[in-house]
Each structure stands twice: as C-alpha cells, then as structure tokens.
Amino acid sequence: MDSNLKKLKICIIGAGMGGLTTALALAKRGFEDIHVFEFAKDLGFVGAGIQLAPNMARILDRLGVWADIEREAVILKDTSIRQGSTDEELANVDLGYVHSTYGYAHMVGHRSSLAGSIYAGCQRESAIKFHFSTSASGVETFAPKVSFVATPKDGEPYRVECDVLLGADGVKSKTRVELLKTINATAEVEDSGQAAYRIMLTREEMQHDPELLKLIDSDRATRWIGEKRHIIAYPVASKTIYNISTAQPDTNFAAAPSATYTTKGSKPEMLSVYADFCPMIQRMLNLVPEGEVCEWKLRVHQPLPTWVHGSVALVGDSCHPTLPHLAQGAAQAIEDAAVLGVVLARLPDTTAESINKALRVYETVRKERAEMLVALAASSGKAMHLGEGAAKEERDKQFAKFREGGKGDVPDKWADANVQKQMYGHDCMEVAEETFAEEFGKL
C-alpha cells in the first residue's frame, strides 16, 4: 500500500459489531490512523446468544479472530421447527451439510465472545485508537475533508477532521440523519410492531428437568411457532447456557429508554404471551428469575436512497437494520466492514473524489444484497406468525411436503437450503475484489 494511502485518517462512529470489524479490516489492510468513537464508557459485552453463520465466519477467519470465537461455539447439526402449542415437529432440517458446502459449520455462540474476540483483535493493532465515553455527531463538512464534533462525557466538545468517516452508530444513527438531511432525504426509524424477549438460562437452572436438559445437551436450534409469535432457542458457551429469543407483538412494551430500545419486562406478562404454548415451554419460561426479564423493541427503517455522501458512508444497522428472523444482522454488518476494507485499500490516490468513488463501489457491492435479506427476514417472520386460515394451511402443507420428502421449500427461510445458499455461499470480499476496477471506472 502507498505510504500516503496508509496515512489516511479514518474515523468510525460506533463500536458495535460493524464498527469493530471495520476498524480491524482497515488495520489488516495497512491503514495506520484509525479512530473509533464510542458513547459507552467501555464495550461491556452484554447480550445474548448469536448465530455464527458461515458468511460471517469466513470474514472473521481472514481477519485472524475466528479461532477464539470458534473455541466456545456450538456446532448446530440440525434445526427443528415445531408447533408451539403442541411441540409437534413441523420440519427438521439437517445442517450437517453446511460445513462441507460452505467451508464453515453453522455455529452459535455468545454475543460477548464474538464482540470480545473482535475487540481483542483490534487491541493488537497499534493503528486503532478507541475514544470511549465520547459521542460523535454534528457532521459539518462531507468533503474534501470530513469534520464533526466529538463530545467526551466529562469534557468539552472538540472538532475532529478526517479523510473518511464511517457511521456505524446503529439504528438510531445520527450520522444517517445528518447525511440524509444534507441530500434532502429522510428515513425515519419505524416500529416493526414486534418486540423480543432475550433470555439466557444456565445449565444449573435447567438440570432438574430432564426434558429441558435434553434441549441444552443437543446440537440443535429449535423454533416453536404460533400466531404472531415464535421462540427460537439453542445452547451456547460450550452448552453451559441455553439461549432463548422470542418475537411477539409489541403490546406489553413500556416506554423504552431512548438510547437502547430495551426495558425491564414483566415475567407475568411474558408468561401470558406464551400461555397457550406447550407445558415444556411453560416450565422453561418459568425458570427465568424475577427481575431478569428484558424486552427489546424491534425497529427498522425504510431502504435509504444512498449510504454514501462525500467521504462519509454508513455501516450496519445505521443503513440496513433487519428483523432477527434470518439471523443475519451482525453478519451483514461484518460483510459491510470487510468490503470497506477491500475498496479503501484499492484507492488509486487519496483525493476526495477517489474516496467517494470507492465508497460508492462499497454501496454497489453491498446495498442490494443487504436490503434483499432485510425484506426476506420480514417476510419469513410473517410466514412463521400466521394465525388460523388458508395461508397457515398452505404453509403447513409446505412443511408437511418437506417433512415427508426432505426436499422443497421450507417456509422458515432461515432453514431453507436455497436461502442458505444466498446467505452463506456469497463471498463479499471476493465480489469486491473482482468488481472494484470495473465499478470504480464507471463512476
């Protein structure tokens, strides 16, 4: 890499999965002046389980952080889709083929292990500097130099100037708002009408119930579905924790703290939402300690007209927040990061014009794919949440056809082999490398 290119000052707002991986991808490519601004005082690494899809693992392996994540992960051998009210199996999908087909098994792990390993990778790179307890907003110039305001929690605001600014500041992104305002566009955050409970039960909490212990000892993701609701669960952390995530109508949600869209939930309300699910589910949910019920408001926004303006680009949930029904939210942010590493390292010079072109190549490689998966996640959620009627009857016929022959479409698109091929078989870095010269030349 040219020495002038290495010296480009690149600032990243947000230290979530997208922001951390972007910093690491850029450092691995040889950039020497990378700054990450994060509002929180530290990364904290809270959260629940997360699915570690092959398209994510492939990138993290190339960045040198996958081995630590893989060590604690659980390989899923299959997924079972079941009727929530009866525990009747609607379909069982083998996941054993995933490793031989895509080079990585379909694994699940703890979100803290994923984020912690990426952060540890960043800490090994002297090029990356973190600015914690610091908010960043007020983008005033987008090119040729980008300028914005950084505000430490216990200090005076100061102006930052950089060559490239990447907004990885989540669904409530201030960078997105400021970018769209500059081009006279908007994309307001919208309620999806859904909320989620995220629960982690320990082996000790489950060990006195043989039926529940069988779940945590399995290599399976199980999804129990019902009208407007579902539960998906799987073991993580070397099978010491059973991760449970739900989706249901956003009717019980209290006024959420503005920064997080999370609130303490009510255990009786949670139990009432799933009161018609089978007795095993009732026992499982009853194990959740009082006061430890957390509910997330699931929010999205409409597709943006652009992710790029000047030398500023958006990353992850700031430009394509998705419902969790395909388990691709973090994976798509990580794909963004990987492609940014490729396109910025391929810059022919350090002019603002070239930077803008490279960022627009990033958008070309990523936007259509990410937005397709966002739409597919939403439609898959609707299929899982059907109530009684003709549509549910048709869906269940599809399940039955798959169950009998082991082939055909699966209404739960996360478990459908054709959709898995779209998700897992795509190598975003390879696409970016192969198309960069042609796409850059068109601009």
UniProtKB/TrEMBL annotation:
Keyword hit for Flavoprotein: yes
Residues of the FAD-binding domain: 8-375
Keyword presence, Magnesium: no
Any GO MF annotation of the entry: monooxygenase activity
Cross-referenced InterPro entries: FAD-bd (IPR002938), FAD-dep_Monooxygenase_BioMet (IPR050493), FAD/NAD-bd_sf (IPR036188)
Alphabetical keyword list: FAD, Flavoprotein, Monooxygenase, Oxidoreductase
Family as reported in the entry's similarity comment: Belongs to the paxM FAD-dependent monooxygenase family.
Protein name: FAD-binding domain-containing protein
Organism: Cyphellophora europaea (strain CBS 101466) (Phialophora europaea)
Classification lineage: Eukaryota, Fungi, Dikarya, Ascomycota, Pezizomycotina
